[in-house]
Write a structure and sequence with these properties.
Length: about 90
C-alpha cells in the first residue's frame, strides 16, 4: 500500500489516481525500478573494482607473501566485496 502525496490517504496498488482528491499518482514502480538499477550498478561496480584490485595485488605479490598476509588480504578485499554483494542482493529483494 502507498499513500497519496497530496492528501495522505492510503491508496491501493492498482489505483492510478486518488479517489479522495483526484490527484494522479506518480508511478512508484518507476521509482522502484530506478532505485533497483542504481543499486545493481553500484553493487556490481564495487564488486568489479574489488576483484580487479585483488587480481592486481595478488599478481604483484610473491607466493610467500600471499600466504603470509592472507588474513589481511581477505579483510581488505572481502569487506568491500561483501558490501557490494549485499547491495546487489538487497536490490534483488526490492
Amino acid at each position: 500500500m502507498s499513500f497519496c502525496q497530496n492528501c495522505g490517504k492510503e491508496l491501493q496498488d492498482d489505483w492510478l489516481n486518488c479517489p479522495y482528491c483526484n490527484q494522479i499518482e506518480s508511478s512508484s514502480s518507476n521509482r522502484k525500478e530506478f532505485s533497483k538499477k542504481i543499486s545493481y550498478g553500484l553493487g556490481f561496480t564495487i564488486i568489479a573494482i574489488t576483484l580487479l584490485q585483488f587480481i592486481l595485488v595478488a599478481r604483484d605479490m610473491e607466493l610467500y607473501h600471499l600466504k603470509r598476509d592472507w588474513g589481511v588480504i581477505l579483510f581488505l578485499f572481502g569487506l568491500p566485496f561483501s558490501f557490494g554483494l549485499a547491495i546487489v542482493l538487497n536490490a534483488n529483494m526490492k
